[in-house]
Each structure stands twice: as C-alpha cells, then as structure tokens.
Amino acid sequence: MSLNMKLEHMHTFHTFEVPTVIKHGIGSIQYIGEEVKRLGVTKVLLVTDPGIYQAGVTAPVENHLKEAGLAVVVFNKVQPNPATALIAEGSSLYEKESCDGLVAVGGGSSMDTAKAIGVEVKHEGSVLDYEAAEGKKPLEHRIPPLTTIPTTAGTGSEVTQWAVITDEEREFKFNTGGPLIAAHLTILDPELHVTMPPHVTAMTGIDALAHAIECYTMHFAQPVTDAVALLAIEYVAKYIRRAYADSGDIEARYGMAQAAMLAGLSYGSASAGAAHAMSQTLGGIIPVAHGQAVAAMMGPVMEYNWKGHPDKFARIAQALGVDTFNMTTEEAAKASVNEVYRLVEDLDVPTLEEQGVSSEMIERLAKEAMKDPQTVGNPRDLTVKDYVWIYERCFNLTPKTV
C-alpha cells in the first residue's frame, strides 16, 4: 500500500450505519406478512434460487405473505455468482408485474440479486453503471422496500450494504452499494436453516468467520465493527461444529444465524481483506462457490497477515477458544492461524484444487486479486508476488511458516 493510501485511511472520517431493522426468533417467519405489509408493500417480487424453491423452503414464506393479503410474483432463477443478465431479467419482471417491494429468500446470491434488482428499478441503466469504482455513478435513490430472509448462515448479506454481482464480459465480480442498497428489514429464523447440508453449513459458516476476522483486522476497522466482529468469531467457534454435525440442533443454528448477521454488520466499514479480494476475483473467472473458496483460502491468508496486526490476531485466538494465558502475543497470533486451519480440516472443506482451480492459474489470479479494492484494507501490505505466495500456500506448493 502506498504512503498516501496509508495516511488517507489514518485520517478517514469513519461512519457506521445500520439501515436494516433486524428481527429474529425461532418460528419468526410467521410474522413476515404483517411485517412486509407495514413497509407499505402490496405486491412482492419474491427472489430465490431454483433449489430452495423446489425443496419447498419458500412455501411458508409465500403462504404467510398471501395470508396477509399481499400478491406474490416468484422469480426463482437465481444462480451462484449472479450475473448482470440475471439482474436485468429480474428488474424487467418487477416492472412488468408492477411490484412495489422485494422479498429475498436464500443465501447471499438471492439477497444480492434482490438488492441489485432494486438498484435497477430505481435508477436508469444497468446495475453495472453503479459499480463501486472510480468514475462510476453513486446510487441516488433508496431501493424499494426489501425484506431479506437468509436460509444460510454465512454471507451476512441480509444486513450488509453491498451486492456482489458478476460482469460476465469482464469475468469480474464487482460491488455496488452504500446505505441506499441495504435491506429495510431482515427476519432471522433458524428453523429455515435446518435443511442446510453439512458442506453448505461449513462453507457459509467459515465465510461468516472470514468476514469477522478480515473486518476486525483491516485498516478501516473501528470500535463498533470490532465489537460485532469479535462476538461473531466467538459464536462461530462455539456453534459451527455442532451445526455441521447435527443439522437439527436449533440452538447451534440460531447461534450461527446471529454470527453471520453480526459478521455482516462488521462489513459496515469500508472493506475486508485479501481472502475476499482473492475469492471475489476467482469467482468472476471460475464458477466456484464463494464461501467454499474463502474457507480454503482463510488459513493461508491469516498465515500471511498475522504480522500486520499481531495483537488483534492474538485476540482472535482467544475468541476462537484458544487458551492463550501462557503465550506471548506472537505465539497467540500464530495460534489463531492454526486454529482456523484446524477448523477447516474438521469441517472437511475441499481444497482449491478439489474445487476445480488449477495451480497453473496462480499468476493470473494473483494479478486479478491485486485489482480488487478489498486489497487496500488488508492488514499487511500486498504485492502480486505476495498474492502468489498466498496462492502457493493454498496449493501447498510452499512450506507452512507457523
């Protein structure tokens, strides 16, 4: 990172905003009809993916909305790493059916799709015109009333102020966002999470952990994001193995739902770090599942990063449940790295190679990651050469250092 950038973030005018009302409880989905009605909505575009729809997960949501007298139009075409063409199709349907509100049911892809549809129906042109990048337009209008209902505990998109969309032409995932894109309401009901298979529990849960760790250690961290990030780390450490082992453990599901939401709130700051820069750029090139890619990358990224903020990495070790009483700060910082490696192993997370990523792509992937704006937030300076090292650790092509 350049000296100018470092000075800039030292003097940042920090902001933390939570535009989303958060409601939660076991069985809380029963209240969605009246809650959405209270937002002034009469006709909903329900955004979800075909798997969740066919499994009947959205059925109770639709029923409760209709019981409250709301009309429901279903858009169930969401795919992982949603592309600009999908957003255009969704916004076209919203306008054609004269909808006046959005409900997203599913994981991060469904929630991000709904946010991006909201951008297009309230702004001219494509969501691509509102990429969070220099020279692009900022959002000017609040999206239509959006209610998010996560069925996974990972992305935190239910409360974040970002949507991550794929530009297929550039093979690049970009962010659009700010307070105007955030959901108006989220309802967290752990009963909707019990259908998650173990591998989805693992990859989404470690994605939540990655949000918390990266936002806690990044350059733009602030006290309020530190607070929610640390609690998210503690919740993941306490509940993720239980949720992975027993899908019906409702306490563990509730804890993980809270962890994902808290970690999403920690994204209320300006950035994340190398793991998200790597996974987002990788996901624009190869159709890997975001959470699974992050999970495979998190250990190597922490192994590289701990020197950038040893005291915070030592605190992460405590939050993960490591007894650091007789450790030095450096020993505890390294222990946090090894604890995350152990967690990834316990949850049987596939390697990048097993996810279909070739080590021959390392040079290209390192260059792409360097272009991602989240690189700026990373706690340790990065170059293309450093990204190559992290990727080589992901493939075990270079020795472990902790």
Q: Label the CATH architecture of the largest domain.
A: Up-down Bundle
Give the low-pLDDT segments: none
The ordered H/E elements are: HEHEHHEHEHEEEEHHHHHHHHH
Biggest sheet record: 6 strands, parallel
In which order are the strands of the major sheet placed?
A: 1-8-5-4-2-3
Describe the structure.
By secondary structure, the chain is of the alpha/beta class. It has two domains: 21-193, Rossmann fold, CATH 3.40.50; 197-394, Up-down Bundle (Dehydroquinate synthase-like, alpha domain). The protein is built from 15 helices and eight strands. A six-stranded parallel beta sheet has the order 1-8-5-4-2-3, with helices on both faces. Helix 8 (223-245) runs antiparallel to helix 9 (250-266). The longest helix is centred in the middle third of the chain and has 23 residues, at 223-245. The radius of gyration is 20 Å and the shape is globular. The mean pLDDT is 94.
Main attributes of the structure:
Rossmann fold; globular; alpha/beta; Dehydroquinate synthase-like, alpha domain; 8 strands; 402 residues; 2 domains; six-stranded parallel sheet; two-stranded antiparallel sheet
In short:
This protein has 402 residues and is an alpha/beta fold. The chain has helices at 3-10, 32-38, 50-54, 59-67, 84-96, 108-122, 198-217, 223-245, 250-266, 274-285, 290-305, 310-319, 329-346, 362-371, 384-394; strands at 21-24, 43-47, 71-75, 101-106, 146-150, 162-167, 172-177, 185-188. The chain has a 6-stranded parallel sheet with strand order 1-8-5-4-2-3, with helices on both faces.
